[in-house]
Amino acid sequence: MTLQPEPEQYDVVVLGAGPTGENLADRAKAAGLSTVVVESQLVGGECSYWACMPSKALLRPAAALAHARALPGAKEAASGALDPAAVLARRDEFTSHWHDDGQVRWLRDTGIELVRGHGRLTGERAVLVDGQRLLTARHAVAVCTGSRAALPHVPGLAEAHPWTSRDATSSAVVPRRLAVVGGGVVAVEMATAWRALGSEVTLLVRSAGLLPRMEPFTGELVAAGLAEAGVDLRFSTSVTALHRDGAVTLELDSGEQLEADEVLYATGRAPRTDDIGLESVGLTPGSWLEVDDSCSVTGVPGGWLYAAGDVNHRALLTHQGKYQARIAGAAIGARARGEQLDTARWSAHSASADTAGPPQVVFTEPEATSVGLTLRQAEEAGLRVQAVDHDLGQVAGASLYGDNYQGRARLVIDLDREILVGATFVGPAVAELLHSATVAVVGEVPIDRLWHAVPSYPTISEVWLRLLETYRG
Ligand SMILES: Cc1cc2nc3c(=O)[nH]c(=O)nc-3n(C[C@H](O)[C@H](O)[C@H](O)COP(=O)(O)OP(=O)(O)OC[C@H]3O[C@@H](n4cnc5c(N)ncnc54)[C@H](O)[C@@H]3O)c2cc1C
After folding, report:
1. 46 C-alpha to center of ligand 1: Å?
2. Residue 447 sits in which domain range?
3. Span 359-400, pLDDT tens digits
4. How far is the CA of 309 from the centre of ligand 1 (A)?
5. Hey, which bits of 23-86 come out as E strands?
6. What is the CATH number of the domain that holds 196?
7. What angle, rounded to 10 degrees, do the helices at 19-30 and 318-336 form?
8. DSSP 152-206
9. Full-prediction pTM beyond 0.90?
10. Phi and psi (nearest 5°) for 343?
């Protein structure tokens, strides 16, 4: 018989201290509940150390240089290349050199306990850490263990030691030749970053276009930007085998070979649930955790098990994970006080924004942003919709960014309710435009009222006026 350690009881046990786990713990603590977080690596998770922050630190200098080079008067002063050593050093500062002291201090200052180690569920409301500490929860256990890169089965892949998103965001050297496999967000962002840092980049895409979940023109404009930056794009191309002998040789389904110094596989994500004791509560190890809108795991009676962030597969984005954390934290607090949950759409205990279509920015050059539904998604949902498009290059505010501003915007309008259900903006410096569309979509602002939301002249936001003029005729 194995001896169980003496249980240590808290109101809430959070498994994983990524952005979602940190925020969920914060909300539970704010609801007056004693809270402990278990973390096996770094407090701050993937986002702080191997995803959002280092990737954007790599990308921002490339964008700044591209913007300067597009502008007569500034381009003469920006004729040189990026300084890779300085960019990598700044990236290292953004990750605090992969030390989490600052985030640990925040946890402690907030009154949240931290237990370092690998946690596994051992049954209802119980988490065992490294087999040594048994944490039990009076009210809830929240699984916030995130996701990892998913690698396909390709002969020779493991032996070729491919880069995953972790290597692509933390590498201390700029490879001379980088092959990138994939056509999604991580693939296009990292192709942009490493090309700007001086790598010869080849992007190998299995399908016929990039960014398949966004409006089709998004992938086309991003592909044009990558090609202009010197990326070799190969569509409808699969890797059939790899071998490494110093450099990596990739065998392509066309029969060609491609040699590279590194190969990045950006081919999707897998849930980090294979070794967290899911079997002890009747769930399948290695699966995404299905939840309801309050982030309570479905199929587990008693309402004590929550899953938020990447691990529930609703929206693999930091801001959505943090949003789910706020909703789940509020739901856990309400249940602990014996209150009924309010799970109506857009209510305190419903992560409704996940299903309305979360906002997303792809930090390529041009930037690609979207919120809500694409035209196709809206039609598939059975809505009677109209797409309204406008060339961003025709907007006065955009022309200030250079003579050859390339971009496009689309609104998807629900004709029965006369509201916006989706918006897409693609172009240089459009990221900050997205939140206006998010407010319009989530607020279900009537088109007639949007007519009175006057954009300032001359800003890129004036595209709102042009789009509404086009719609109203
Ligand atoms: C290259 C890249 C760039 C990205 N850029 C953006 C971006 O710009 N904007 C954006 O919104 N999103 C971005 N994302 C997505 C974003 O990183 C994730 O959505 C986010 O990190 C999810 O947060 P999380 O807390 O759910 O999981 P994670 O950040 O993965 O954190 C999970 C934590 O749980 C810990 N853990 C796992 N299992 C256990 C266990 N058994 N015991 C103890 N601890 C455990 C892990 O160590 C980790 O710290 C990017 C992703 C990638 C790969």
Report:
1. 4
2. 366-472
3. 999 999 999 999 999 999 999 999 999 999 999 999 999 999
4. 8
5. 35-39
6. 3.50.50.60
7. 30
8. ---TTTGGG--B-HHHHHH-SS--SEEEEE--SHHHHHHHHHHHHTT-EEEEE-S
9. yes
10. -110, 15
